[in-house]
Amino acid sequence: AQTVTQSQPEMSVQEAETVTLSCTYDTSESDYYLFWYKQPPSRQMILVIRQEAYKQQNATENRFSVNFQKAAKSFSLKISDSQLGDAAMYFCAYRAGTYKYIFGTGTRLKVLA
Amino acid sequence: GAVVSQHPSRVICKSGTSVKIECRSLDFQATTMFWYRQFPKKSLMLMATSNEGSKATYEQGVEKDKFLINHASLTLSTLTVTSAHPEDSSFYICSARDHGGGNTIYFGEGSWLTVV
Predict the structure, then answer these.
(1) Hey, are the CB atoms on A43 and B93 less than 8 Å from each other?
(2) Does B6 touch chain A if contact means CB atoms closer than 8 Å?
(3) Strands A107-112, A10-14: parallel, antiparallel or unpaired by DSSP?
(4) CA of A45: which chain B residue's CA is closest?
(5) Bridge pairing between strands A101-103 and A88-95
(6) How far is the C-alpha of A88 from the C-alpha of A106, rounded, in Å?
(7) Which residues of B touch A7 (CB under 8 A)?
(8) pLDDT of residue A42
(9) Which residues does chain B have within 8 Å of residue A45's beta carbon, measured at their own beta carbons?
(10) pLDDT digits (tens, 9 = 90+) for A34-80
(11) How many CB atoms lie within 10 A of CB A99?
């Protein structure tokens, strides 16, 4: 069975600094997608970034980038130039052909002014 | 862009009653929708896959007679919590698959259920 593990329950970063959130996963599938979602207090799930497993190039979306290590089954999120609005719960997620998501336990990110 | 709407956003019901939560895809057809449950300060757990025109597929450990799912149209799936108990209090989120839009998955805003 597929699993997603986030080992950091909480992280803090100073405003304007860089922070990396960790995620590892386990799967026997070769074709899958990985995601980072942000969940602010409103609870709305906001897609931050996605990575297709067949792509070797790491995905980037403005200040957000990933380090995708397929062999190691690692998928970390780097947030550069952190802003107060980045404070939220971040979930790493896995999705394969059934379109069902498997979420990690989440990392609460605090941004310090 | 595509939007998935849930209603109600918050609901309080008495123990023993049933409550229905709706999930609508507003500008695309979704033959497949998914229902998740999120306990406070916990992750999202998939409850079931809702298939238009057929029975839902439930994840292991989810009581199908307690959490009734109906996907009667291409834009609407409903989750009915029957004979609700306080332990059913939770945040319920749906997602919908946009088949015509590259199979993108969109999440609803979620619904808070409190059973008193």
Answers:
(1) yes
(2) no
(3) parallel
(4) B107
(5) antiparallel
(6) 10
(7) none
(8) 87
(9) 44, 93, 95, 107, 110
(10) 999 999 988 889 999 999 999 989 999 999 999 999 999 999 999 99
(11) 18
Q: Which of A17-21, B47-51, B80-84, B101-105 has the lowest mean pLDDT?
A: B101-105
Chain B residue nearest residue A105, CA to CA: B43
Interchain proximity A45–B107, CB inside 8 Å: yes
| Cβ-Cβ contacts under 8 Å for A107 (sequence gap 6 or more) | A6, A8, A9, A10, A11, A21, A22, A89, A90
Structure tokens that stand for B27 in this block: 């500008």
Residues of chain B found within 8 Å of residue A102, distances taken between Cβ atoms: 46
- Contact list in B for residue A44 (CB cut-off 8 A) is 107, 109-110
Q: What share of chain A is helix, strand, coil (3-state, %, to 5)?
A: 5, 50, 45
Predicted local distance difference test score (pLDDT) of residue A70: 94
Q: Does B49 touch chain A (CB under 8 A)?
A: yes
Amino acid at A24: T
Sheet containing B76-81: order of strands: B4-7, B19-25, B76-81, B67-73
Phi, psi of B88 (to 5 degrees): -85, -10
pLDDT at B50: 92
Distance from the first to the final alpha carbon of chain A? 41
